[in-house]
Specification:
The complex is a heterodimer of chains A (about 525) and B (about 350). By secondary structure, chain A is an alpha/beta fold. Chain A is built from 17 helices and 23 strands. Chain A folds into 2 domains: about 240 residues, Rossmann fold; about 180 residues, P-loop containing nucleotide triphosphate hydrolases (Rossmann fold). Chain A is about 30% helix and about 25% strand. Chain A is globular and about 70 Å long. Chain B contains 14 helices and 2 strands; from the N terminus they run E-H-H-H-H-H-H-H-H-H-H-H-H-H-E-H. Chain B starts with a strand and ends with a helix. With about 350 residues, chain B is an all-alpha fold. A two-stranded antiparallel sheet of chain B has the order 1-2. At the A-B interface, helix 10, helix 11 and strand 18 of A face helix 8 and helix 9 of B.
Chain lengths: ~525, ~350
């Protein structure tokens, strides 16, 4: 660790100090007397499960929300921050998890839109170039955002903040969209900023990177501070337990019997794209057997969306035998026919695809559960639906006001638990899961992982798309990588490591599938 | 600007139901202002427009006569509107339904049989469905816009009607008036009571509302329709066939409008003539939205719209106002419901500049 001694700043007032911040929302107390101090030139972690109140707290700092009680001190002076513009004026910059960039405009134009007093584009472009080179974030201000990768888009957001010489930079889950090498680059930049005296408030779920980057942390649980700690002195496990307030369950992987015949086969799946922003898929081969979990790693935008739509049947394949389920060529079948074959699917978008936002959880249970006895002769069986919805809510600990709650009213993580639960409880033969734990808190992620492993034990074939390598290495039997519309061979987890998969995520993988079938010994090793 | 619109975090459910009432009230207030501006004493005009028409049993019967087609068409259209399929051509489907029903009536001219009216109803329903199949086919096959196609077909239907009553279906003993023969008794709805024109068509309309309620709340098909309308991607993900939704929506909407068309020629009119519809097919769109696409709401808004039609008639006679007064009221009602509906998703707030100054 190359951390500067935080004692150097001791004596000076903290850059930002929160005292007793309390924020009510109708029906919930989002923040309850939260204290937090970020010293100058310090990277401070803010940890907590979904719904622990991190976003609310950050929004209070950035002037989006007004706290009901408590005070905010900036460089020792009490301040009220009424709007993001005022926050920026004080010297607070924020990089949101979801970028607010207009794709058809250039980088310089986008940054000009976000500045309160933008100079003319020519001078701005010059400054963008200077700042971006200074911090190792190379950007050409004339390029349109459309042509940028996700990592580059994040750079635009960071540069936009840096142009205003912030004293405090708030970063909300910045690494969730980056490859391992991109993460290393980002960390170099953050460390450089820290050494120049910029304070950083760093929000993340990824405990390993917090231990790598931060020297102090505040852990939130149910809106309250559950601990202040030095993450370097903690283990990821102890940090996670501070967040959930109890012992973290371990994902056990009991041995499972792999079926002799594959449940899902992709045979040279190729699909050109008509969408100018889409990704064409070329010559994909894959076999997924019953009783195994195969992971697809890769940075988003490399064809995951298209592949998932082809698998679910939302997009038909060009040839019937491109996709084979249980020996049947299903490439031309729609989603309903494939569901009837035992396929269930957890899409990445929870609202508006995985669920109808305005409908209740009970109705959203029916959305995909209609083939499982919830409809009789065309008439909805209200009682059966209610029973099924309640079972999902109970088994997957979905926090909601009841099964009558509309999907939109749930937090992202809870809705994800509901959708994963709905698809799992249909006892599928083949489960396709896109980012099953994205934005889900540690406790819930563990529950989802356990459910996937249970499903594996029951003989289900599972294909998991994820950008989180920790997750894939924890639950998968084999891992393949998707890059630029091509699929790498699937390698048994025991025969590969983060480095190799990380390299593959950059496109450096062997063309021909060499080791699609795991060795007999590989299987035994999986059984922990 | 002193005020600005601000998006509500959640659509206001109170406003969803308050909005039709506010719109009705505003229509009333502005209607009175219009009367005053035309030099009519507003209170007297209000009485003539809204009270006098239903001040007698006969008047109530007339109200059901006007409300029947509005409710029936609105119930059919609601299925499509809930599914996000915008059939704007109910007026045309209404006319084609009336034509098909009339053809049956005229074919059996001189024959008396209890099967003629039911046969007419079936023919009219099928006619409306067939006519609605055109936009359905074009939409599912060529991805054309059903709003434009269904709307333009209204004018085709109107021309077809004019051709028929001037040509093949003209009354041979009718002194060249563009009208068909008068229907025989077996081809007409008989009124429930002497002196009141209320008939079985109203019962059919109420039945349609019950079916609509059952479809939307209890049938899986209704669930698919609602899901497709609220979130097409989620419906596609779940495996609901979107083409099937288009076909169903247009067939149900067209069938209901066609049935309403037969009811009209077999009811108050009694023959086929060029102006069989005072714009019921379009007014029903307002009825459906004013009734919040809900059966109970449609019953109430259908009654209100029927009253506006009746009031327009009495206002012509008693106040010597032009017949356009009906259209003015319909227009105001539509305008206000659209305007007030803005507040379902938005709220008006003092501009931050002024809020700060006040603070």
């Amino acid at each position: 660790m190359t951390t500067r001694d935080p004692g150097a700043a001791r004596g000076a007032p903290p850059r930002l100090e929160l005292r007793g911040i309390t924020k009510h929302f109708p029906g919930c107390l989002a923040n309850d007397g939260v204290d937090l101090a970020v010293r100058p030139g310090n990277i401070h972690a803010l940890l907590g499960e979904n719904g622990a109140g991190k976003s609310t707290l950050v929004k209070c700092i950035y002037g989006v929300n007004q706290p009901d009680a408590g005070s905010i001190h900036w460089e020792g002076d009490p301040v009220t921050i009424k709007s993001p513009a005022e926050a920026r004026h004080l010297g607070i910059g924020m990089v949101f998890q979801h970028f607010s960039l207009i794709e058809t405009l250039t980088i310089a134009e986008n940054i000009a839109l976000g500045l309160d007093d933008a100079p003319d584009l020519k001078r701005l472009s010059k400054r963008i170039r200077e700042v971006s080179e200074l911090y190792g974030l190379p950007l050409d201000p004339r390029r349109t955002v459309l042509s940028l990768s996700v990592g580059e888009r994040q750079r635009v957001e960071i540069v936009r903040c840096l142009l205003q010489h912030p004293g405090l930079l708030i970063m909300d889950e910045p690494t969730s969209v980056l490859t391992p090498s991109q993460i290393d680059k980002l960390f170099e930049t953050l460390r450089q900023l820290r050494d120049e005296g910029v304070s950083i408030l760093y929000i993340s779920h990824k405990l390993a990177e917090i231990r790598d980057l931060c020297v102090s942390a505040t852990v939130l649980r149910h809106g309250r501070v559950s601990a202040h700690c030095d993450p370097r002195e903690e283990t990821p496990r102890s940090l996670a337990e501070m967040m959930i307030g109890s012992q973290l369950p371990v994902t056990e992987r009991p041995p499972a019997t792999r079926s002799a015949e594959p449940v899902l086969c992709l045979n040279g799946l190729t699909k050109p794209t008509e969408d100018p922003f889409g990704q064409a898929l070329s010559d994909m081969d894959l076999r997924v057997h019953g009783g195994e979990i195969v992971g697809i790693a890769g940075v988003s935008g490399n064809g995951q969306q298209e592949l998932m739509q082809l698998l679910s049947g939302e997009m038909p394949a060009d040839r019937r035998d491109h996709i084979v389920i249980d020996g049947q060529a299903v490439g031309a079948q729609g989603p309903a026919a494939r569901r009837a074959r035992g396929l269930t699917f957890v899409p990445e978008e929870r609202l508006g695809r995985g669920s109808v936002p305005e409908m209740s959880l009970a109705e959203n249970t029916l959305l995909t559960g209609y083939g499982k006895g919830l409809v009789r002769r065309g008439v909805i069986r209200l009682r059966a639906i209610r029973r099924q919805a309640e079972a999902i809510v109970e088994r997957f600990d979905v926090r909601c006001s009841g099964i009558g709650a509309v999907a939109r009213s749930l937090s992202g993580g809870n809705l994800q638990k509901f959708i994963v639960g709905r698809e799992i409880m249909q006892q599928p033969r083949l489960l396709i899961a896109g980012q099953p734990t994205w934005g889900v808190d540690v406790g819930a992620a563990a529950a989802i992982h356990r459910a996937l492993v249970d499903l594996r034990a029951a003989g289900c074939a599972t294909l998991v798309f994820s950008e989180d390598l920790d997750e894939l290495f924890e639950i998968c039997d084999r891992i393949a990588v998707i890059f630029a519309g091509r699929l790498s061979p699937a390698k048994p987890v025991s025969e590969t490591d983060y480095d190799e998969i990380g390299r593959w995520m950059g496109g450096l993988f062997p063309e021909s599938p060499t080791t699609d079938e795991p060795h007999a010994s590989g299987r035994a090793e999986h059984a922990v | 600007m002193l005020f600005k619109f601000e998006k509500r975090p959640e659509p206001s459910s109170a406003m969803v139901y308050a909005s039709p009432l506010i719109a009705g009230l505003l229509t009333l207030v502005f209607g009175l202002i219009v009367f005053a501006a035309l030099g009519k004493p507003p209170l007297h005009a209000f009485y003539v427009f809204f009270i006098k028409p239903v001040n007698s049993l006969y008047g109530v019967g007339e109200l059901t006569i006007k409300a029947s087609p509005l409710i029936l068409i609105a119930a059919g259209l609601t299925v499509g509107f809930r599914a996000g399929i915008w059939n704007i051509g109910a007026e045309g489907q209404f006319i084609v339904g009336a034509i098909c029903g009339s053809c049956v009536a005229l074919w059996f001219h001189g024959v008396e049989s209890p099967f003629i009216l039911p046969l007419m109803l079936v023919a009219g329903t099928l006619g409306g469905m067939l006519y609605a199949m055109i936009p359905a086919f074009l939409r599912t096959r060529f991805n054309t816009n059903e709003i434009l196609v269904s709307l333009m077909l209204v004018y085709v239907a109107e021309q077809l009607l004019i051709y028929l009553v001037n040509g093949p279906l003209r009354n041979p003993d009718g002194f060249n008036f563009p009208e068909s023969r008068l229907f025989g008794d077996s081809a007409l709805w008989s009124p429930f009571f002497d002196g009141v024109r209320m008939n079985g068509a109203f019962v059919l309309s109420l039945l349609a509302l019950v079916l609509l309620y059952f479809l939307l709340s209890r049938l899986f098909l209704g669930f698919q329709i609602r899901a497709a309308g609220l979130s097409p991607n989620a419906a596609h993900y779940a495996g609901f066939n979107s083409n099937r939704m288009v076909w169903l929506s247009l067939l149900i909407g067209g069938g209901a409008a066609g049935l309403a068309g037969v009811n009209e020629v077999a009811g108050p009119i009694g023959q086929l003539m060029p102006d069989i519809s005072p714009g019921y097919g379009f007014a029903a769109i307002i009825v459906a939205y004013l009734g919040r696409l809900h059966p109970v709401g449609i019953l109430m808004s259908g009654g209100l719209m029927a009253l506006i039609y009746l009031g327009g008639d009495t206002a012509q006679i008693d106040l010597q106002l032009p017949s356009a007064v009906t259209g003015v009221f319909q227009g105001m009602l539509l305008f206000f419901i659209l305007a007030v509906d803005l507040f379902v998703n938005f709220r008006l707030r003092l501009h931050p500049r002024f809020r700060e100054r006040r603070a």
